[in-house]
Amino acid sequence: MNIAIALIGLGFLILVHEAGHFFASLAVGLRPRRFYVGFPPAVLRFKRGGIEYGVGAVPLGGFVSIPGMHRPIPHDAERRFTRAVSEAPALAGPFDRVRRGLDGEDPHAALPAIDEFEEALRARKVSRDALGSAEKGLTELRDGLGPDAYWKAPTWKRLVAIVAGPGANIVLAIVLLTALYMTSAGKVIPVVATVSADSPAEEIGLRPGDRVLAVDGSKIETAKDIPDRISESGGNEIVVLVRRDGEEVTLGPAAPEAVDGRYRLGFALKGVGLGPVDAFGQSLRVTGLVTVEIVKSLGRLAVGEGREDIASPIGITQVSSDAVERGAESYLMVLALISLSLALLNLLPLLPLDGGHILFALLEGARGRIVRREVYERVSVIGLAVVLLLFFIGVSNDIGRLS
To answer: Which CATH superfamily is domain 187-272 in?
Structure first.
């Protein structure tokens, strides 16, 4: 059950990312053609306002189809029309005119030839597969040459549509963190919230609701003093002074146990919420700190270090599942950090990631003309190779950890 909740959470983060692209594209006039919750095959779909909305059978994430991500080239026609032309040779003439039009200085010159090809296609008998491929090609070419094609849009519109994806994940992370800091995660106070079973704290009779006044004779000024005093014991027996029902009670002695390099008695302190302004400020501070750490980790990878820090979806799911087991607060905190990580990784300047599209949009805006499709494809191969390499390193790390 925990793993299922973790997977749903990861799918939700991807859906938020795609929704950012979708609504931003709509806002700037780059009207998407499809918006799916989940991945095909579709179990439900309908059209409204020229946009196909659907629910995919694979319930993880979603996707958005923005028209004309690249300028159409002859290869696009060849890929979709070749089978129909081979079955109906009379289509060869219109097909050749489509290719020549797309290969010219102004690809819009191909539009009359596209109409001609479609008319000739309707008059010929071809197989269902050939017809389906050709019809899809006609739609793609018209989308790519339409007024709302992405590649033709001003640089600022392209940037808005692309940045909105990772931006939505960053906003979600801040919203989740703010909500957490407005509740129990805001400020820790020196009051016991929970006591772990079979722990030294349980053995000496520590109870939820006890206010810790002193640890081994050292007066407690702030909640932060408590774990510090316990860890400073070095594992030697200590006593704890608490206020319970208006009376001071001395508990112990008990020997703290070593956990993750620190000595602990086995209890958690209570948290109280911050005000909206303070909670928002704290969420921004944490977002900034995590961003710096992620950037540092990526920098270490660039010089061949920090390989063990990489995780794949397997490891991320395991961490999320563990957080679910610890409670809703822990899970939402992890979900916020994963959302932030997803945004930052997508901003890497590599195609096909969002960061790569941002880089090329800026480059084309500065040059005043688009980059040739061949360059996009070669750079995408390099970017995809890097992403796959990181994925396989993450998988190997996660398998090692699970083993």
So the answer is: PDZ domain (2.30.42.10)
Query: In this predicted structure, what is the pLDDT of residue 152?
Result: 92
Residues of the chain with CATH 2.30.42.10: 187-272
pLDDT tens-place string over residues 344-371: 989 989 888 899 999 999 999 999 888 8
Higher pLDDT, 186 or 296: 296
Quick: pLDDT tens for 203-246. 999 999 999 999 988 898 888 889 888 988 888 999 999 999 98
Which residue type does 147 have?
P
**Whole-number Å distance between alpha carbons of 354 and 346:** 5
- Name the amino acid, one letter, at 301: L
Helix (H) or strand (E) holding 384, with range, is helix 373-402
Q: What one-character-per-residue DSSP string does 153-191 give?
A: S-HHHHHHHHHHHHHHHHHHHHHHHHHHHTTTTSEEEEE
Cα dihedral 362, 163, 63, 154 sign: negative
Angle at the Cα of 260 from the Cα atoms of 257 and 285, rounded to 5 degrees: 125
Q: What is the DSSP letter of 251?
A: E
Count of alpha carbons within 13 angstroms of residue 231, beta-carbon side: 9
